[in-house]
């Protein structure tokens, strides 16, 4: 059974650009959640999608957005990138919101 | 205020030692995860707990729901156990994770 796949694994962008990250959950999983990990703040919740609907959102500015497709794949978009957006972005998938979550390897974004 | 507190922040042990990492949380939860992250690597979920105790090889995780506390034990520690261990709780009401700041474990041969 394939795990959670995040693409790309590494990304370098310039300030002001936008970026789209992708997360393919484990087959059959309908919940996908996104997290940001920085050395200063640790892991922080961004948002969760379930059956194409955003169910919960963390405390991040509107530059951070996401969506989920009918096949449960999810994308996260960050517009007008800032240096502070440099981080490891992780997604996790689960069958339902109360079942075990499985994490992807993450996308390491560097903003220069 | 952090919803999840972990201790210790850093831990150095000799190979073979018994290790305990503690996690306390303040929110109502549906589940607690122990996660492992190797340097430069992604995150692996070691355990998901909602009650009692789970064992997987040399790893044991316990949770006390009434006291809002969980522990991760590593028996006969090995250098390959060197990693950051993160406690994460899934909130009962918000369907989101709250994370501890992690415990950086180094096991010396």
Number of strands of chain B: 11
Along the chain, the helix and strand elements of chain B come as EEEEEEEEEEE
- The protein's oligomeric status is heterodimer
Output the number of helix runs of chain A: 0
Helix content of chain B: under 10%
Can you walk me through this structure?
The complex is a heterodimer of chains A (112) and B (109). Chain A is an all-beta fold and 112 residues long. Chain A has strands at 5-7, 10-13, 19-24, 31-38, 42-50, 53-57, 64-68, 74-78, 87-94, 102-103, 107-111. In chain A, 0% of the residues lie in helices and 54% in strands. In chain A, the strands form 2 sheets. In chain A, strands 2, 4, 5, 6, 9, 10 and 11 form a 7-stranded mixed β-sheet that branches. In chain A, strands 1-3-8-7 form a 4-stranded antiparallel β-sheet, with no helix packed on it. Chain A starts with a strand and ends with a strand. By secondary structure, chain B is mostly beta strands. Chain B has strands at residues 4-7, 10-14, 19-25, 29-37, 43-49, 52-56, 59-64, 69-74, 83-91, 97-99, 103-108. In chain B, strands 2, 4, 5, 9, 10 and 11 form a 6-stranded mixed β-sheet that branches. The A-B interface holds A 33, 35, 42-45, 48, 55-56, 58, 90, 92, 97-98, 100-106 and B 30-31, 33, 35, 41-45, 48, 86, 88, 90, 94-102.
């Amino acid at each position: 059974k394939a795990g959670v796949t995040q693409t790309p694994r590494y990304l370098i962008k310039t300030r002001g650009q936008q970026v789209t990250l992708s997360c393919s959950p484990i087959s059959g999983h309908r919940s996908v959640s996104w997290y940001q990990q920085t050395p200063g703040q640790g892991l922080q919740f961004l948002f969760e999608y379930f059956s194409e609907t955003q169910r919960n959102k963390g405390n991040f500015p509107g530059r951070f957005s996401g969506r989920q497709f009918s096949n449960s794949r999810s994308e996260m978009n960050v517009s007008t990138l800032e240096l502070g957006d440099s981080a490891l972005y992780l997604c996790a998938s689960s069958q339902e919101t109360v079942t075990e979550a499985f994490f992807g390897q993450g996308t390491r974004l560097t903003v220069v | 205020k952090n919803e999840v507190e972990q201790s210790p922040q850093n831990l150095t042990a000799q190979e073979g030692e018994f290790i305990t990492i503690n996690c306390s949380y303040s929110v109502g939860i549906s589940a607690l995860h122990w996660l492992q992250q190797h340097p430069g690597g992604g995150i692996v979920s070691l355990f998901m707990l909602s009650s009692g105790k789970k064992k997987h090889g040399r790893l044991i995780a316990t949770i006390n729901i009434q006291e809002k506390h969980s522990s991760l034990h590593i028996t006969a520690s090995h250098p390959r156990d060197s990693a950051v261990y993160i406690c994460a709780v899934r909130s009962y009401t918000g369907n989101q994770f709250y994370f501890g700041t992690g415990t950086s474990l180094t096991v010396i041969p």
